[in-house]
Design goal:
The protein is mainly α and about 140 residues long. It has one domain. The protein has seven helices and no strands.
Length: about 140
């Protein structure tokens, strides 16, 4: 099932980020720097849009940016494959592994941490909008 949300600015941010990561993975490290720059801009945009630094979309973008920074040193650039694959999965299928991981932070969940929660979190179908909304609908 494809979930292409071309009317959503966030989808366009992720598309351009995925293209930049593709450039970086292809051998041009400038792609990584530009992906970090765009994600930083996206984070700032979402802080102003959500008017709350603790908002779930802001948290997702913050942790995504941290993953890009951790991957930046030459010795760690193999790690860019994780956001590369994940971002393309987000764009095409609507499956955002980062959002699912962030949803597991204690302040983002009401349910006790368990194997059942992990399975529900990572194996549930992609949903339009926030993964947290989708989980609420499925419970």
């Amino acid at each position: 099932m494809f979930i292409i949300e071309y009317k959503d600015i966030g989808w366009w941010y992720w598309l351009v980020t995925a293209i930049l990561l593709t450039v970086g993975i292809s051998g041009n490290s400038l792609g990584f720097i530009l992906a970090i720059s765009l994600t930083s801009f996206q984070l700032i945009h979402y802080i102003f849009r959500e008017k709350n630094i603790k908002a779930f979309p802001v948290q997702v973008r913050f942790w995504y940016l941290m993953l890009l920074f951790v991957s930046l040193p030459d010795i760690m650039q193999w790690l860019y494959w994780v956001p590369y694959v994940g971002t393309w999965a987000q764009i095409i299928f609507g499956y955002c592994a980062m959002a699912r991981m962030v949803s597991l932070w204690p302040w983002n969940r009401e349910e006790a941490f368990s194997m059942k929660l992990l399975i529900k979190t990572f194996l549930s179908r992609p949903v339009k909008g926030s993964v947290k909304q989708g989980f609420a609908e499925n419970t």
